[in-house]
Amino acid sequence: PMATTEGCLVASASRGCKAINSGGGAITVLTADGMTRGPCVAFETLECAGAAKLWLDSEAGQDMMKKAFNSTSRFARLQFMKTALAGTNLYIRFKTTTGDAMGMN
Q1: Residue 91 structural domain
Q2: pLDDT in tens, 22-72
Q3: How many helices (H) and strands (E) does the chain have?
Q4: Residue 65: φ, ψ to 5°
Q5: Rounded distance between C-alpha atoms, residue 79 and residue 3, angstroms
Q6: In the structure, what pLDDT confidence band is assigned to residue 103 with cuts at 50, 70 and 90?
Q7: Strand partners, 81
Q8: Residues of 60-70 as b/e, b for ≥16 C-beta within 10 angstroms?
Q9: Which end of the chain is less crowded, N or C, counting CB atoms within 10 A of the terminal residue's CB?
Q10: Which residues pair with 93 in a beta bridge?
Q11: Selection from 56, 50, 59 nearest residue 85 by Cα
């Protein structure tokens, strides 16, 4: 079942299902459940970017981000967060579960 108000999404998914069924069907295996997003935060200085990375990677930073993230949705839950520094740019990778929600928004 698919619940959405986006008619084009339903039509597209229906065409895909029809194509798969016409080809004999498909066998799938779920190896992981989650969705990732990777925003980039630009800082004025390397010192500020490094300090932000250290805080986000700390236990206190991880706990605070998890609490803040989980408070924004009845469904989404932050599984983990990973950071990478490239000069003054801090890349933050969030991996979440979205429960019954699609989670793209």
Answers
A1: 32-97
A2: 999 999 999 988 899 999 999 999 999 999 999 999 999 999 999 999 999
A3: 3, 4
A4: -65, -40
A5: 25
A6: low
A7: 94
A8: ebeeebeeebe
A9: N
A10: 82
A11: 50
- Quick one: pLDDT at residue 88? 98
Question: What radius of gyration do the chain's Cα atoms show?
Answer: 19
Q: Which amino acid is at 49?
A: A
Identify the H or E element spanning 95: strand 89-97
Q: What is the share, in percent, of the chain residues with pLDDT greater than 90?
A: 74
Contact 66, 73 (CB under 8 A): no
Determine the residue type at 72.
Answer: T
Average pLDDT over the chain, rounded to an integer: 92
- The pair of structure tokens assigned to 58 is 């700390």
42 domain-assigned: yes
Indicate the DSSP class of residue 18: H
Answer whether residue 46 is part of any domain.
yes
Q: What total of structural domains would you count in the chain?
A: 1
Query: Where residue 48 sits, what CATH number does that domain have?
Result: 3.30.70.420
